[in-house]
Design goal:
499 residues; alpha/beta; Alkaline Phosphatase, subunit A; two-stranded antiparallel ribbon; 16 helices; 12 strands; elongated
C-alpha cells in the first residue's frame, strides 16, 4: 500500500471536526470552527506518528491509529445516543457505566488487532477511500453554504446602498412611528408555558396589557425553526412563495427582507443589535450596535472557548471532564455561556438607548432567551447556567421583568408612540413547539386589525396597512412543523387553544 493511503486515520480525525462544523454551519460562522479543525489535525497526526513509530507493521499501525481516533472522537456521540436509555433498569448513558465499558472494548479491540497476523493492505485502501468520501461531503456542504453566505452579505450591502442613495426622505418622516421587532427566541405562549413548565405567566401578560399591548391568545409560529420563521415574518409570506425551498437563500431573505426594504424607501433607518446567530446579525444596518469584541477572543487563548468548541469537546473522550466540576473546567466550559449571557444583557440595556437615535427607525433585536430550555440567568438576573425546569422559571421571571423595563423606557423616551412587536420565533422544544408569545403595541387603534389566531406572517401586513395606507391582504394563518434533519418536510399543526 502506498504511504499516502496509510494516512486515513488523520483524515478520520479531521472529519470529526469538519463533520460537526457542516452539521452546524447554519448556526455558526466557519471561523468559529477553525481552532477545532486544527486541533483535530494535530491530535490525529500525533496519534498516527506515535503508532507508526511503535508498531513495525505500518499497515497495522494505521489501523490501530484509526481505532484509537475513533475511540477518542466518538465517545460523546455515543453518550448522547445512549443518554437516558435503560435496559433492565440500568441506565447505559452514564459515564460511570459507559466510560469503563468504552475503555475495555477499545483496549480489547486494539490488542486483538495487534496480535492478529493480518495482511491489511486491502483494508487500508478501503478505509482510505472511505475517509476521502466522508470528508468530501461536509467540505462541499460548508463550501456551498459559505458561498451563499458571501453572496448574501454582498448583495445586502449593494442593495441597501442603492436604496439609501435613491430615497428622498418625505417631509412627513418626523411623524412616522419607530418600529421595534424584538424576537425573544423560543418564548412560548402562556398556556404552553403553564402546561410544560408549571409557570403561570399571567402577571407578565397583565403587565403588557396594562401598558397597552394586545396579546392574541391563540398565536402560533408559522415554522418550527428560527431561519424559516424569521424569513417568513420579515417577508410577509410563506417559504413556498420564494420559489423552490431547496434553492432559496433563507439567510439572505432575513438580512435583506421585504419589510426592511419597504421601510427604507419610506425614509426609515435600520437599527440592529448584535446577534449570537450570524443570519440575524444585520452588520450592514445604518446603526449596528455591537460589543466590539476581538475576533475569536485571541486565537491562542484557550482559556476562552467558543460555544462550538465546547460542543466539539463534548463529542470526544473529554466529555466526562465537564462533569468533574473542578474550578478550571467549570470556567472553561461555562465561558461561551457566560459570553452569551453578557450579550443578552447588553442587548436588553442597549434597547433602552435606541430611542435617542434621531429619525424614524426600524429596530431589529434577536435575543437568545429563553431559548430551548437553557437558562442563562436566575430570577435576580445573575449568570447561572442550567437546563432544569426550575431554573427556567427563574429565567422567565427576570426576562419578564427586564422586558417590561425596556418597553417602559422605549415608550417614555420616544417622541412619537412607537410600534412594538415582541414575538417568539418558535415555542418550546415539545409538541407545543409552535405556540408562541405574540405581543403587539399598536397605537392609534392599530390593534383593531388583530385577531386571536394571527401568526407572524401577517404581523407586518397589519403594520403596513394600519400606518402606511397599504392594502396587503392577510394570508391564511398556517403553522408548518418540520425538523432540522428534514426542514422542508412540513406538517400542518394546531396546538389546542381557547380564544
Amino acid at each position: 500500500m502506498k504511504n499516502r493511503q496509510r494516512f486515513y486515520p488523520v483524515l478520520f480525525g479531521i472529519y470529526s471536526a469538519v463533520g460537526l462544523v457542516s452539521s452546524n454551519i447554519d448556526q455558526m460562522r466557519f471561523m468559529d470552527g477553525i481552532r477545532s479543525i486544527l486541533i483535530a489535525i494535530l491530535v490525529s497526526l500525533l496519534v498516527y506518528l506515535l503508532f507508526s513509530w511503535r508498531v513495525r507493521n505500518k499497515d497495522k499501525a494505521s489501523l490501530l491509529s484509526a481505532v484509537f481516533i475513533l475511540f477518542f472522537f466518538a465517545y460523546g456521540h455515543v453518550y448522547d445516543a445512549l443518554e437516558g436509555f435503560k435496559i433492565a433498569g440500568l441506565t447505559l448513558g452514564r459515564h460511570r457505566f459507559l466510560f469503563p465499558v468504552w475503555v475495555l472494548v477499545f483496549t480489547a479491540l486494539g490488542i486483538w488487532i495487534y496480535k492478529r497476523p493480518w495482511k491489511l493492505a486491502s483494508t487500508g485502501r478501503f478505509l482510505f477511500a472511505m475517509s476521502i468520501i466522508l470528508l468530501v461531503m461536509p467540505i462541499a456542504q460548508i463550501g456551498i453554504y459559505e458561498w451563499g453566505r458571501y453572496r448574501s452579505v454582498d448583495q445586502q450591502g449593494n442593495e441597501q446602498s442603492q436604496v439609501i442613495q435613491q430615497q428622498n426622505l418625505p417631509p412627513s418622516t418626523e411623524n412616522l412611528p419607530d418600529i421595534y421587532y424584538i424576537i425573544l427566541d423560543g418564548y412560548p405562549r402562556q398556556d404552553a408555558l403553564l402546561q410544560y413548565f408549571d409557570f403561570d405567566n399571567q402577571y407578565f401578560i397583565d403587565q403588557l396589557e396594562e401598558i397597552g399591548f394586545s396579546i392574541p391568545t391563540c398565536s402560533q409560529s408559522n415554522y418550527a425553526m428560527t431561519i424559516l420563521s424569521l424569513s417568513s415574518s420579515l417577508n410577509m409570506n410563506y417559504a413556498g412563495a420564494f420559489g423552490d425551498v431547496g434553492q432559496v437563500n433563507f439567510e439572505e431573505k432575513i438580512v435583506n427582507s421585504e419589510t426592511q426594504q419597504i421601510l427604507q424607501e419610506l425614509g426609515y433607518q435600520t437599527v440592529a443589535l448584535e446577534s449570537s446567530i450570524w443570519f440575524t446579525d444585520f452588520t450592514n444596518a445604518d446603526h449596528y450596535i455591537s460589543q466590539k469584541r476581538p475576533v475569536l477572543n485571541s486565537f491562542f487563548d484557550f482559556s476562552r472557548l467558543l460555544e462550538f468548541e465546547v460542543v466539539y469537546l463534548r463529542t470526544t473522550l473529554l466529555r466526562p471532564l465537564e462533569e468533574a466540576k473542578t474550578a478550571w473546567l467549570d470556567s472553561l466550559f461555562d465561558n461561551p455561556r457566560q459570553e452569551l449571557y453578557n450579550l443578552i444583557m447588553f442587548q436588553l440595556e442597549q434597547l433602552k438607548l435606541v430611542p435617542q437615535i434621531e429619525g424614524p427607525k426600524f429596530v431589529f433585536a434577536h435575543i437568545l432567551a429563553p431559548h430551548a430550555r437553557e437558562a442563562y440567568f436566575n430570577a435576580e438576573g445573575e449568570f447561572a447556567y442550567s437546563r432544569a425546569n426550575d431554573a427556567m422559571k427563574g429565567e422567565f421571571t427576570y426576562l419578564n421583568q427586564i422586558t417590561i423595563e425596556v418597553i417602559q423606557t422605549i415608550l417614555a423616551e420616544s417622541e412619537n408612540p412607537p410600534v412594538i412587536i415582541i414575538q417568539g420565533d418558535h415555542g418550546l422544544d415539545t409538541e407545543a413547539r409552535m405556540a408562541i408569545l405574540n405581543a403587539y403595541y399598536l397605537p392609534d387603534d392599530g390593534a383593531k386589525m388583530l385577531y386571536p389566531a394571527i401568526t407572524p406572517v401577517n404581523s407586518f401586513r397589519v403594520v403596513f396597512n394600519a400606518y402606511f395606507g397599504q392594502d396587503f391582504p392577510l394570508l391564511p394563518d398556517i403553522s408548518l412543523y418540520s425538523t432540522y434533519e428534514d426542514m422542508f418536510n412540513f406538517t400542518p399543526v394546531q396546538y389546542p387553544c381557547i380564544p
